[in-house]
Amino acid sequence: MNLSEIQDLIKFVSKAGVSEVEIEKKDFKIIIKSEVKGGKNEPIYVQAAPQQIQAAPVAPAAAPVAPAAPVAPVSDDSKYITVKSPIIGTFYRSAGPDKEPFVQVGDTIAKGSPVCIIEAMKLFNEIESEVAGKIVKVLVDDASPVEYDQPLFLVDPA
Hints:
The chain is mostly beta strands. The protein has 2 helices and 11 strands.
């Protein structure tokens, strides 16, 4: 349960006039109490039981460490150039909901061609590619927030 869910639950308890709500799940327990004294709502108290964290078993010092399994070949993406976000904002693949995306996987782009829009403070900034090549992968979902220098696209310069 995250913070916003807890806040929504507190608002529900205060509006519904319920005096107590208790939720218990596998890894946590939360109790929300609202006391009414003299016709005034008193503060709402929230108690959450600490989550139980299981310690990882410790291997004996004499035991040899097994080699880690290969995760993914890094060399595959190393030949690609990453187009990164120059600003913080909301990433959009197209100029509007009914418009076609600026680029699709497999499209060939030229240096300076628009690849997306990032909205920052109600301003829509058209982001242009700094490299020429072929779009290999779109790394961000449409209408999702992006950070400065976050990878947006992988481009094959070949």
